[in-house]
Design goal:
The protein is of the alpha/beta class and about 900 residues long. It contains 26 helices and 31 strands. The strands form ten sheets. Strands 7, 8, 9, 10, 11, 12 and 13 form a seven-stranded mixed sheet that branches. The chain has a four-stranded antiparallel sheet with strand order 6-5-14-16. A four-stranded mixed sheet has the order 29-28-31-30, with helices on both faces.
């Protein structure tokens, strides 16, 4: 097979991905092998590939490809999430562009548009993942709104309702006025924002006295139903039992007492607006206050807003503060830093709102999931630091608001049959609901036409928390072969931002529905940031086009670039230069292979240098393999790549190939060639999870392979007994080689000129390595001597001193002058360091690492002075 002169990622990648797909290497069915399964964190169906997806899915692909090479039955389940809020918003926007208002459509008509959108755009991100090399079992592709997942969600809702864990309640919720739906507490992001604190004067009924309250939201005074004072506050004791007049509206409201009021905040008086603050709601219930909701669903004011009706809340804030000032109610304003809740999806400021919603009781459900991570170690988080966050959330868990005022999603299976709010039943089908409704109402004349299904849908996370179970059919058929084989899954790779949204809830679901963990390990990636540490986003324009990166650097180059900058749980600073480094690495591997294949092979005796070099590399390969295994076991994926990178770039390319390389235009012996090809194949196996396309291309060029011999399903190398002595002896020899090369470089002695090397043998050295030292430095002879050699340059490796005779090669006088100058500088440097270390104040106050650094400087300078003095002595 002809080997192209250059590696072409574009042609290579498409070719091998089609080959892998055609031969079904990614598809898995239960068998007698050990299973290894992971489920993809399902990206939004409307999404496209971004840097976070690239990192997350590269790591998953590394894990699944390695498992495949280890001989496990590897199964990576792909899929997408229907993303209720985001998708519905996009469909509504598209309809608006076409002149269609969602409110003019029936539910079924709208859903048809939503499905059209999903079919048009839903597969884009999965197709893009293929370009990255992701080896998912595409035959298993799932969607959180497909029939299997839809029916699974409905079944779970009904089961939980029948257990008494789901209830409907009129509660204060987080309302997104842009998406027009409620959100769970976890979908609200709190941001510190600077605003104003408005001091407003309320007149006391029947007197000229006024009481001042402080508020950040003057528009909500139109919903005030009381003023509250602390009973222990002597300043306001005389107001007990009196009433106040709300500015502008003129409504009369009571003055109540409650220790909830913080006497130190503002003026010590609190306006109570039960419809628009969760704490005010509690006060309202305790004191039987009226509740006045002043907002429409889109956060404009309703009829209680008087002349502000129909205006947006923030417009009203400006206008009402002006009116309050003009009418003498505004005493003063102060700047104030306030935590403002915003919607995770739409970024709109959340409005607290009283609403009928469906809730899931979480306190008891959370206990096994808390224990699994914190106490029993059944589920391990990497990095471990996230356990504290997990513990805090799970110990303070609130009931989960699972209903959303949307049409795109699993419609809540509650069916109403009467006028009373309790006149409903919950069932998986409308026919079941009819029978239940007849029994509950004692009305056998009810028909399906008398039933109306709850219009709300379930929170998207209520679908994805079942993901590891539902993708294997384990909700509808709890004892089927696939879920019993693949579940629990092994590893989950995701971002820490959805630790509670998704990870914790999947653990809850695992113990509730299968009484076991959903996965063993959770690996948290960091966020991808730019070089200025800014989070990558479309609005900042700092997020590169993922597909353009693949086009420019090849998928393997991008994968390496991402992993070289990534550490578990820490944000990574993405630098496109790292992709170039990945591309350069691919070229290094390719060119190393071309070098090998360019050699003529002959039946010749094996040189001692080649034999020893190959033995050393085999030991080094085994040592690195052990290191890689340790990194993988601890989810240090970037460290595992770096270990392979150094092995291939430094040990293999820079050392081994040089050691065995035949002389110019001479053949290589067959024994060495066959052995180096075998070791190169081991390199490719280690590299394959990180760079699948390049490695398969090279693997297939090495020899004609049958489909059963493809690299993607080859066998991971095994570690044997590692010869540590051989490795340490090579390291010693490498230092000698570096010393000779340094002298050659500094003295401009070209490699084609031979030099001699003499060794003052203060420590026993294995002379076997002399053949490699001689070959890589073009040394004619290596002599072992008992006394220092005059007229030579010297360097030291441990306690051995090496001399390179310089007679005739350099200007001795110029060299003596140069060494004297360097010696003078180094002695001066040593004195400055010694002064620091003799300063008691410095030694007592400086950090230990600073002291250690100075002591190392001292030792290095002393060693250098000794070497320079010996070189000077030998030249004099």
């Amino acid at each position: 097979m002809e080997i192209p002169s250059k590696y072409n990622p574009q042609a290579t990648e498409s070719h091998w991905y089609e080959y892998w797909m055609k031969n079904g290497y990614f598809h898995s069915v239960p068998d007698n092998r050990e299973p290894y399964s992971i489920v993809i964190p399902p990206p939004n169906v409307t999404g496209v590939l971004h840097m976070g997806h690239m990192l997350n899915n590269t790591i998953q692909d590394v894990l699944i490809r390695r498992a495949r090479l280890l001989g496990k039955n590897a199964c990576w389940v792909p899929g997408t999430d229907h993303a209720s809020i985001a998708t519905e918003a996009k469909v509504v926007a598209k309809l608006k562009e076409e002149g269609i208002n969602k409110n003019d459509l029936t539910r079924d008509e709208f859903l048809k548009h939503a499905w059209d959108w999903t079919h048009q755009y839903g597969g884009i991100i999965l197709e893009q993942l293929k370009k990255l090399g992701c080896s998912c079992d595409w035959e298993r592709t799932a969607f959180t709104m497909d029939e299997e997942r839809y029916n699974s969600v409905i079944k779970v809702f009904v089961d939980l309702f029948n257990k008494g864990l789901i209830y409907r309640g009129y509660r204060m919720v987080n309302w997104d006025p842009e998406a027009l739906t409620t959100l769970s507490d976890e979908e609200v992001i709190y941001e510190e924002k600077q605003g104003l604190l408005y001091y407003l004067a309320y007149q006391i009924e029947g007197s000229e006295e006024k009481v001042t309250i402080a508020t950040t939201r003057p528009e909500t005074i139109l919903g005030d139903t009381a003023i509250c004072i602390n009973p222990n506050d002597d300043r306001f004791g005389h107001l007990k039992g009196k009433k106040a007049i709300v500015p502008i509206s003129g409504r009369i409201i009571p003055i109540i007492e409650d220790e909830y009021v913080d006497m130190e905040f503002g003026t010590g008086c609190l306006k109570v607006t039960p419809a628009h603050d969760i704490n005010d709601k509690a006060l309202g219930e305790k004191h039987n206050l009226e509740t006045i909701d002043i907002f429409n669903d889109n956060a404009t004011l309703n009829s209680f807003g008087l002349h502000y009706e129909g205006k947006d809340r923030f417009v009203v804030r400006k206008e009402i503060s002006k009116e309050l000032e003009e009418k003498g109610f505004l005493v003063k304003t102060e700047t104030h830093i306030n935590k403002v809740g915003t919607s995770e999806r739409t970024k709109a400021v959340i409005e607290p709102k009283l609403s009928d919603q469906w809730f899931l009781k979480m306190e008891d459900l959370a206990k096994p999931a808390l224990d699994a991570v914190i106490n029993s170690d059944d589920v391990k988080l990497y990095p471990k630091k996230f356990e504290n966050t997990y513990r805090h959330w799970m110990e303070n868990v609130r009931d989960w608001n699972i209903s959303r005022q949307l049409w795109w999603g699993q419609q809540i299976p509650a069916f109403y049959y009467g006028d009373d709010q309790e006149d409903f039943v919950v069932a998986t089908t409308i026919n079941e609901a009819l029978e239940l409704a007849k029994a509950k109402s004692n009305n056998t004349n009810l028909t399906i036409d008398d039933l109306r299904q709850d219009a709300d849908v379930l929170d998207t996370w209520f679908s994805s928390w079942l993901w590891p179970i539902s993708v294997f059919g384990g909700v509808l058929e709890p004892d089927n072969e696939e879920v019993n084989y693949y579940y629990p899954t092994n590893d989950l790779v995701t971002g820490p931002d959805i630790l509670f949204f998704w990870v914790a809830r999947m653990i809850v679901a695992g113990y509730e529905f299968r009484n076991e963990r959903p996965f063993e390990n959770v690996y948290f990636t960091g966020l991808v940031r730019d070089k200025q540490r800014r989070k990558m986003s479309k609005s900042l324009g700092n997020s590169p086009d993922a597909l353009k990166l693949i086009e420019d650097y090849g998928a393997d180059g991008v994968r390496v670039g991402l992993l070289l900058s990534s550490a578990a749980g820490n944000d990574l600073m993405f630098d496109e230069d790292l992709c170039q480094q990945g591309k350069n690495f691919a070229n290094k591997v390719w060119n190393g292979f071309r070098l090998l294949k360019g050699w003529e092979v002959a039946d010749l005796p094996q040189p001692e240098a080649s034999k020893l070099g190959l033995e050393w590399y085999e030991a080094k390969l085994g040592q690195t393999l052990m290191e890689i295994e340790d990194h993988f076991n601890k989810f240090r994926i970037s460290d595992a790549l770096m270990a392979v990178y150094k092995l291939v770039w430094d040990d293999y390319s820079s050392w081994l190939l040089e050691i065995i390389k035949p002389a110019y235009q001479q053949p290589i012996d067959k024994i060495s060639f066959d052995r180096v090809i075998h070791l190169f194949e081991q390199n490719l196996k280690l590299l394959h999870p990180f760079m699948p396309f390049l490695t398969e291309e090279v693997w297939q060029h090495i020899a004609e392979r049958k489909a059963s011999e493809a690299l993607v399903i080859a066998e991971w190398p095994k570690t044997g007994k590692i010869n540590e002595t051989l490795i340490s002896q090579f390291d010693f020899a490498a230092e000698v080689i570096a010393g000779v090369r340094t002298i050659r470089k500094e003295k401009n002695i070209p490699m084609k000129e031979t030099v001699e090397l003499s060794v003052l043998n203060n420590e026993m050295v294995n002379a076997d390595w002399d053949v490699i030292i001689s070959k890589l430095t073009n040394i004619s002879t290596i002599t072992y001597i008992d006394a220092p050699l005059e007229g030579a340059l010297t360097f030291r490796v441990k306690s051995n001193e090496y001399f390179v005779p310089m007679e005739g090669a350099i200007d001795i006088e110029a060299e003596i002058t140069k060494i004297q100058e360097e010696l003078k500088y180094t002695k001066g440097f040593l004195i400055s360091v010694q002064k620091k270390l003799s300063n008691e104040r410095f030694v007592n106050n400086a950090p230990e690492n600073v002291i250690s650094l100075e002591r190392k400087k001292q030792a290095d300078a002393e060693a250098k002075i000794e070497t320079l003095e010996k070189s000077l002595e030998s030249l004099s």
